[in-house]
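Quick one:
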Amino acid sequence: MTYVWFVIGIILTLAGASWLVDGASGIAKRYGVSEFVIGVAIVGIGTSMPELTVSLLGSIRGSAGIALGNVTGSNIFNTLAILGVTALVNPILFTRENLRKDMHLNTLASLVLLLFAFLPLAIKPSDGMQISTLEGIIFLVLFALYLMMTFAAGASSQPAEAGQDDSKPKPLWQLIAMVLVGIAALAAGGRLFVDKGCEIARALHVSETVIAITFMACGTSLPELVTCIVAAARKRNQLALGNILGSNVSNILLILGCSALVRPLEVDSVNLFGFYSMVAVAVVLYLSALLPKKNTLNRYKGVIFILLYAAYIWYTVVA
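Output:
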């Protein structure tokens, strides 16, 4: 029965991604909002719900390692694995706004997390490295400002393309319903995938370390993966990119902000390595847009991203 639920989880995730992309794209076209903004504000936050659930539960149960590791692992998976696979499906073209603002904010959020981990140590060494409750509040304020900046920029950016679909536009209530049902299906499907996948892994005697690194971080990012593949296949690459960058920033500012409100999150050496890796990966993403074949994450770079993620997993497991 475990395998049946595992397959149901995959089906729910695929269906949810399709509904979410269609509904979000429809809203973008209806109101002339860029698909990148919709990707950040609706799709990115919506597909981060599994991470929010896992991190909040980890914080409530006093397991800061789960709360922090889930976010850092998901962000690294989002950037290297998901954007790598997305580029294989359809190369991603970075806009001037992506280069000027969006990827800078993605990197800045990672740097702020790293700084905040050390800040309590500098103020009160006896507390050790942690994300305090006050820092959690600051994260949530920064997240609100991030959303305001995104919508303000979206008002003056290029609106979503109408595409080749000449059919009659769907009513707004139907588009909103598609987005909500899509998010719910992604959350339920992703949860089934993680839970049943872990059960299968344990039955096959796979170590707990491998389960935590692969199924926990990668499983909660399954909604982002499927959503990006579907968006890329439909040539909605700005929606896919907005999904990843929006999800990364949401994971740090929104999810860790909420988790730190429950209780301060203690940072150990494993978490610290994850923070360093997350900053490095954000820089790699930015540099990839400036290297040969400028402004494009092509299939060649996509393969490199996937290999880098495989190297990260290998190093983490072996070390």
